[in-house]
Amino acid sequence: MPKILGIDLPENKHLNISLTYLYGIGLTSANKICADANIDPNKKASDLTTDELNAILKALQESYLVEGDLRRAVAQNIRRLTAIGSYRGLRHKRNLPVRGQRTKTNARTRKGAKKTVGAIRERSERKQANAAAEAKAAAAEAKPSGKK
Fold this sequence. Notes:
It is built from seven helices and two strands, in the order E-E-H-H-H-H-H-H-H. The chain is mainly α.
């Protein structure tokens, strides 16, 4: 299994598809890297020689920001936005959609699972809530007021 920048590339796929397993490399970039390294993009990743791997690695290091460096740069940009208090930074901080999507419905990926507020759905929980409310009201009536 060929390794590039600490990532194992799948052997049974074409090289241009295998390169997309690197963070920051899509299909177009993978095809450009293959062209820069003078390697057939339809060649299987398992058939690569060490010279071809070195050519791919050289093309990546010269022209692309990938894996750890790219992740670090993205995280740094988000920290900068939150530090200056921009709208996008606030949306990142609150885990809400950043690019103008609606949030009344949808946005469940960013917001997480629904949290029901105010309504009690299960019958047993509703009975417990009613009993607690009645006990609180009875305690308020039984409590003597300080004045006569």
